[in-house]
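haha ok so turns out i had the wrong file open the whole time. this is the CORRECT one, sorry everyone. sequence first:
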Amino acid sequence: MVNTHDAELAKELSLAAGRLLLDLRTDFGPVDPGDKARRSELKDVADAASQSFLAEQFARERPGDAILSEEAKDSDARDDADRVWIIDPLDGTSEYSQGRSDWAVQIALWERGAPGSGFTAAAFSLPSQEAVYTTGQPVGSEVEPLANRPLRVVVSRSRPPELFVARTDEIRARLAADGVTTHGVEFVYVGSAGAKVGEILAGRVDAYVNEGGFWEWDAAAPLAVAVDHGMVAGHLDARTIEFNKRPPWVDDIVIARPEVIDYIR
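then structure:
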């Protein structure tokens, strides 16, 4: 069940942190994508600013809850906590520092005993795209019929899923044999996990696959929002992904529209 008050807080804070990050990038001034030192400086400043803002807000709004954040020291307080906010103050720092739009602010609430992966509220914003996705708030996007186009799968720009890519011909043949589409498979390359799932929720792609693994804060809010909007999400072998673990690592993930999941796994 979605906790509407917590979902609204997640939405408000992801939007506010996103505005802060947009202003910071503007004030920082132009950054040459090839200038690694200046990009690194911008990333460090932005991570710290967003983390400081969110930490202050959670201390005021939810002082009794535990926090797991990419930009803060992990605490054993979350081990026995009933409520843990899993946040990524800036997911996609590389894209952010290059002036791209595929980065996100991601906030999710994990509650002990909640069904599935344990989330009861979540939101992630894509500030450069003026978009925000929240549990409990349908997006109502339209999807072009699959028969008229390829099956579109969003993957990492830097670490595409090699095993899945190697299966492309097999998947293409199955899609055609089943009368789903004769247009094959198309890969879309996007940065942040939130931006990838945003592509699914906006109706532009059908699935997201990651084989290499990442941290819980990368996956939490995108997964929680996607599931709330009717997507199938879990490990590539169909196991439910568990959160608030030690270490907070997710081995792999697939998020997909229900009608295509059998072609993805």
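The helical segments are 4-28, 36-61, 93-97, 162-166, 168-177, 193-201, 216-228, 261-264.
again sry for the mixup
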